[in-house]
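Hey team,

Sharing the Xaa-Pro aminopeptidase run so nobody has to redo it. Sequence (485 residues) first:
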Amino acid sequence: MAEELTPAIPDESEEPIKQRKNGLYPGVSDELAENMKSGWADTELRDLDPIPQAAETAARRAALSARFPGERLVIPAGNLKTRSNDTEYAFRASVEYAWLTGNQTEDGVLVLEPKGEGHEATIYLLPRSDRENGEFWLDGQGELWVGRRHSLTEAGKLYGIPASDVRELPGKLREATGPVRVVRGYDAGVEAALTDKVTAERDEELRVFLSEARLVKDSFEVGELQKAVDSTVRGFEDVVKVLDKAEATSERYIEGTFFLRARVEGNDVGYGTIAAAGPHACTLHWVRNDGPVRSGDLLLLDAGVETHTYYTADVTRTLPINGRFSEIQRKIYDAVYEAQEAGIAAVKPGAKYRDFHDAAQRVLAERLVEWGLVEGPVERVLELGLQRRWTLHGTGHMLGMDVHDCAAARTETYVDGVLEPGMCLTVEPGLYFQADDLTVPEEYRGIGVRIEDDILVTEDGNRNLSAALPRRADEVEAWMAGLKA
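Structure output:
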């Protein structure tokens, strides 16, 4: 990694760019500075088409405008975060901002200004790096260091929103009058400029609305979710093909194999990959992925590719590492499969959101009673939640640009709500018998099984977006054998 010449230039500063403390060059001569100003080709992009989702983002902004008439609305993308010294974490724009604009660059801010019956939208962005003051080659975020930014004119064409210089925004916000709302938690500078104009309660109403507005996906979003799932299916196939290499190394080989698919076909993984072999499968969010991969154990792989537009899959399969389930592994696996079948069948328009969870939990409770692990009847087990010692988590969640999407929605519209066509959720029951659980027979201990699919609510029922991955035990074994062959 090359050593940066200078720290970043302060916004709106006329001061010369300062040499970093331990840089190898003592400064920039007047002759070099002058030389760097000229001799560069015109690279303005003039034949740009709007992004594919431009019509959808415009419709989303219109719905937002209708909900908050006469109020200024401020939605930031967020800023870079330091990982270590002068290196930053990979940037991911706030979901609210990306959903409303399609833009993903740091420091961006969408502002909806009240105008007439609605609002006028402006997207505030950093313009191209300045060639006159040397920013483009001296600043740590200049384009010769991190890549070319779109010009404001280009951005306006791409996103269908007039673009302005974000460095001018704090002053404009400080001078703003009338009611204002901001999405908090992403841009401290923006919030500071509005500190005397906003309230936590009003800002939370904006955040909740934007979360609930994403509950029902439009056609573009459904297409992106399917794209994410299709790449994820290929990622699972990649993993099965290299299980022998994982046995020779560790769970990290599985994680790395899936990550390659995510980066080649998408933006990233949608969340930290869970590559849990053996008893690690009993840890719900096992992301250390540093354990051994042994023949005869199960591998619980919970992973999802995130598309370039931020939509993520979330799929889990529990696979026999040697390709064949043992008798006790299949017994537990089949119970989880039956529970998932019951849960998926309960996903349909007009059903309560909780129905799929209740259906899956009932099946698991029945099996636990049948196996003598908990005293029945089943109704008593469910009423007291006794099955949760081994089922632990809820049976699913909404899915979209966040892996746990729409999390800020009101309880009455989410978990106590009703399913509608266009909603996308996971159905993911599991059974987890901890290695140190003395209440179960020894043969159960250390076995964890989860099966998870991404389910779209349709007009007449549901569609399993991840149906291309086998689920039934015998189909899983045949699929693995075919891939290894």
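Residues 219-241 form the longest helix (23 residues).

Ping me if you want the raw files.
A.
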